[in-house]
Amino acid sequence: MELPKTPQRALASLLFRTAQVRLRGLHYTERDVTQVAPDDLRKIDICWSVAPVLGMVDIIRGSDFQLRALLLALKAGEPYRLACAFAAEACSAATEGGPGRERTAMLLAAAEACVQKVQQPYTLGWLELAKGMTGYLEGKWKRCHEHCVRAEGYFNRCTGAWWERATVHLYATLSLFWMGEMGEQSRRVERGLRQAHERGDLFGVTNACTGFPLLSWVARDDPEGAKREAAETMEQWTHQGYFLAHYWAMLGTAQVDLYADRPDEAYARVKSEWPALSKSLLLRCQLIHDA
Predict the structure, then answer these.
(1) Are 48 and 85 in contact (CB under 8 A)?
(2) Secondary structure letter of residue 285 according to DSSP
């Protein structure tokens, strides 16, 4: 299994696998884990290790691997891996916005059916995470927050689920921003940033110091502190390619510039990064496109 070298190649691979899923459907023959060849399980697990994590950095490449995981899980028919694959694919479907709602609901229902058979904290957490992320992508902020809080409870019972905890923490924080709960958002950002620094977790630090969470510094009337945190965080990121972290940094610092009455700087920042953003294909996600 190879990682596509460019966003365009990843998109071509993604469209091919999307067609495969649409043609075969979501039917499967349920099997116990002992009935599936170890090599087949390993392939699913490799794709699963890559897909959701990469999807929070590079949506197109992550979605490509997510569809690989879904196709392999459908072939295997093992409920634990199907539950995770259906839940993650629901998140991917929700990035289409309105046109993807019917498919998103279908995938969530399929995930829930598998989760009920497995009843493990990790799959229960992923079901709640999927409901939270799809709620966010559909503009249902309260629903997003409620499900993310429940997901945190499940993932706290799992060993090593640091990425999952950081992700539900992020979406719970983002939903608070849209609900106008800036005080609670600031407390979440402060706690998340402290924990991420303790773990040496760049993903968690980036979640706290870019995008709308960055406005927690603005709520304290500290725009310079906000820009400093964002700049220091992004210095640790690669400058080869344009990923979701770059978009969130651009959006957050532009908002800070607007607050500080520097509209020219905000406009210049967006204008300078727009070609790279367009080339990255991140604008295929409706929420990013509309923002």
Answers:
(1) yes
(2) S
Angle (nearest 5°) at CA 104 between 99 and 107: 145
* Region of residue 200 (left: phi > 0; alpha: psi -120 to 50; beta: else): left
The residue to which tokens 């607007």 are assigned: 258
At residue 104, what is the residue type? Answer: T
Please give the torsion angle defined by the CA atoms of residues 84, 89, 91 and 93, in that order, rounded to the nearest 10 degrees. Answer: -160
pLDDT digits (tens, 9 = 90+) for 188-204: 999 999 999 998 999 99
Q: Which amino acid is at 71?
A: L
pLDDT-derived band at 14, boundaries 50, 70, 90: confident
Per-residue pLDDT tens over the stretch 56-98 = 788 888 888 899 999 999 999 999 999 999 999 999 888 877 7
Closest CA relative to residue 282, chosen from 250, 234, 247? 247
User: What is the reported pTM?
Assistant: 0.88
Helix, strand, or coil here: 236?
coil
Q: Name the residue among 141, 200, 126 with its Cα closest to residue 173.
A: 141
| Separation between Cα atoms, residue 170 and residue 206, nearest integer Å | 10
